[in-house]
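ok new one. same drill as before - structure tokens go in, u give me an amino acid for every spot. 151 of them this time. try not to just spam alanines like last time pls lmao
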């Protein structure tokens, strides 16, 4: 396993563990789905989005897990329990770990096999992007949770 794959795997696993903690810190299941003002994506939907994103782009595309993504459902599904979200995170952690543990390092320099943005990118570049994407939405979830605690 290459140093880049090891690093991305550690970062993703670390941040998915933080996602588990953030979700578990919500006082009630209902709080996971609250929106207000300009906040249109509650923690529950951001969690589903992150899990769907990683299970598809890493688990299915790079690891051939067979996962089928429904991106629209990541944002339209409402009311899942904290336990259901934590189970989804656990599945995501396993899928990411399995895919990255078996990833051939030569793939890092090849063009990622699915067109995501308008310009092609290497698989190594996209793995770094996925880690940053997770961190971005993880920060949003943290702020969402703390805003609810002050009211």
């Amino acid at each position: 396993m290459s140093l880049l794959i090891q690093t991305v795997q550690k970062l993703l696993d670390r941040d998915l563990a933080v996602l588990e903690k953030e979700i578990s810190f919500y006082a009630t299941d209902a709080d996971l789905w609250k929106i207000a003002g300009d906040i249109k994506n509650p923690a529950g939907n951001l969690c589903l989005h992150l899990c769907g994103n990683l299970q598809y782009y890493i688990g299915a595309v790079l690891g051939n897990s067979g996962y089928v993504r429904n991106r629209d459902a990541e944002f339209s599904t409402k009311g899942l329990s904290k336990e259901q979200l934590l189970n989804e995170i656990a599945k995501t952690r396993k899928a990411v770990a399995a895919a990255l543990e078996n990833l051939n390092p030569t793939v890092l320099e090849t063009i990622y096999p699915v067109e995501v943005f308008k310009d092609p990118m290497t698989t190594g570049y996209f793995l770094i992007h996925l880690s940053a994407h997770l961190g971005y939405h993880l920060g949003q979830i943290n702020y969402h949770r703390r805003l609810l605690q002050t009211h």
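The helical segments are 3-25, 43-60, 71-76, 82-101, 123-149. and btw The chain has one domain: 3-149.
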